[in-house]
Amino acid sequence: MGSSLLRIEELKTWFFTSLGIVKAVDGVSFDIEKGESVGLVGESGSGKSVTAHSIMRLVPDPPGRIVSGKIVLEDLNLVTLDKKEMQSIRGARIAMSFQDPMTYLNPAFRVGEQIAEAITIHQGLDRNKAHEEAVRVMKTVRIPDSSERAMDFPHQLSGGMRQRILLAMAISCKPQLLIADEPTTALDVIVQSEILELLVDLKRELSLSLLLISHDLGVVAHVATRVAIMYAGNIVEFASTESLYKKPIHPYSRGLLSSIPTLEESPERLHSIAGDVPDLINPPSGCKFHPRCQYARDVCKRKTPVLKSVQKGHYVSCLRVGEI
Q: Per-residue confidence at 216, pLDDT binned at 50, 70, 90?
């Protein structure tokens, strides 16, 4: 691996609501190296998408705000940039493919026009040149009959095709980092596989770094070289994909992996993690996972764990890591 492309240090993104402060991201630290694929995994409500929106500086203010921490792109701290400076970064150096295509694609405009808009803004091409580049990018993400599909409206395309349009928009200005937020959600298994293969190929062909956000560890295993497990606004384990899948250490990581069905196992009831994701307005004291953890002791209720190295390249946030 090369040097670090993106480094996140003690990031805290909170939402200030009438009911209280929602600490959606509460001290997250991890890095992505140049040319690397990192997976960010956790249940719904763990803070994955808020982390991604924080990197892009797209957290709605109010009610949300980055209250502390750093997001460093090479040598540039994105947290300190004003709106105009961030606009020059967003799309050009960091791009994001969002979770729900129909939410982020404008139903009133043809998909080719929407891709061309980003190209015009960041590359300064005229309308005709931008349209030609949009069609070329659509071919890159393997949309058949790209010239004809560019004239379609979003509702005329399948879910898989709409996801490819979002990817085309994201890579249209040749970013250094692509953030793919749940790119396979609501797609059938065959289309999921095609999208994952496309992500791998795009990373290689365009020399991208990739942050893949998912609740599905099986999806991430196909793409990521390292995986960060997120729970209740914190990273609880961060390691190479091979190390994490072969020997998960944090009880939450173990629970996630043991809930994945395999062809080798007998058809018994799948393991599930007891309880629910905690209320982030009033989270549990100490370790936020302790109400759901079979290994929890009194110390887990009192003391907050921090992410520590347990072996080379493997980091875990657990007070009982040496005993489990």
A: confident
